Prior knowledge:
The protein has eleven helices and five strands; from the N terminus they run H-H-H-E-E-H-E-H-H-H-H-E-E-H-H-H. It has helices at about 45-55, 55-60, 60-80, 100-105, 135-200, 205-240, 265-270, 275-295, 340-405, 410-445, 460-465, and strands at about 85-90, 90-95, 115-130, 300-310, 325-330.
Amino acid sequence: MVGPKYQRPTAATPSSYKEPPPPGWKEAQPNDAVLRGKWWELYNDPELNALEEQISITNQNVLMAEAQYREAKDAVRIARSALFPTVTASPSIINTQTPSQVTGTVASGAKAAPHGFYSLPIDLSYTADIWGSIRRTIAASANAAQVSAADLENARLTYQADLASDYFQLHGLDGDAELLTRAVKSYDEFLVLTKNRYAGGIASMGDVAQAQTQLETTRAQLVDVGVQRAQFEHAVAILTGKPPSGFSISPVTLKTPPPPIPVGVPTALLERRPDIAATERQVAAANEQIGIAKAAFYPTLTLSASAGFESADFLKWFTWPSRFWSVGPQLAETLFDAGKRHAQVSQAEAAYDVTVANYRQTVLTAFQQVEDNLAALRILADEADVTDRAVKAAEESLTISTDQYKGGIVAYLQVITAQTAALTEERAAIDLLTRRMTASVLLVEALGGGWDASKLPTVSDVIAANK
């Protein structure tokens, strides 16, 4: 086999991640437990588990990727057929009548009788794979099938992560809705209070107007949350392959922070991401194309044979004297092509360099995504602690302002300010928990979910499956 032997390209791989795991997490070592299989079960949410199971069954994008994988495997079968001879048969029955002018029967007035010709040739053609061009074509097709298999797993992981992210954002909005509902109830009570104080001559009409404004503004925010929640619910429905009209998710508020996720070491990431596996297999396929281009410099040997029966008499068509046969090799070599083959080799080598650069960039992007989400989880955990303290301080400030207002010490504007601050901090706390859950999902996706390279079919597996 002419052409280069494939070697997996090197890629920059750090010995450890820059970002330390969030507080309470341990950095997993190669032999420690890593994400496997159904990673979403880390969140201990039965409804999420049930939804995730639908991705591989009814998500149309995943089903499309699965069909493309089957298509790629059939391409291997097509390429492999070139290793074997091609046998064709082309039987024919031809009736002809020669013109009288040709047969010389015009003068006598006789008509030339029609006659038939019966033929049944069977042709065999076989191109010997002397320089490995056919074998490299098969290998390239098998590599392409592996790319398609990795793309399928990457699509499955992507939509599983999208579903989990949408699911947690939806329930984050449920938390907002619950908070705003409580706030509306509280502000409604404050409105009654200010009206009573106004009726008693203690408060002004301005206090009533401020209380009314605060109440209606919060009601508007509650209504707006419903719009966003509906959109996330519709997105989850589509991800599970269902029409939104018959799909719903019960309101649930997020309570617990994201679970610890085994991060592993950077060197393991190259074997755990399906997109990295796909780009590496693209490099292997491009390497085979270089060999195919170089094989064009060498002559091709074709073995041809033909045999069958030919006769002008139908009754004698399949008799032994009607047999014929021929056999012989043919050697073909291009003597001049104005540099075409050299350009094709150069083009294949450039295409190979493209795939190598793409592979290395994919690896770098993978490390960036892990680092980004490790940083997000660590920083958001610290921010959540600060926000919790701010919530407590805002609630205490609201309690003091309320008591002072009831005692006639401060104006209602101070109560409004304290209410707004408390609501803002409480919504920030809910938003932070939602962002932490979403970041944990993105970290799982960046780590490759529960996939690893051992699940990718080998070249031998792809070829064997199509014999």
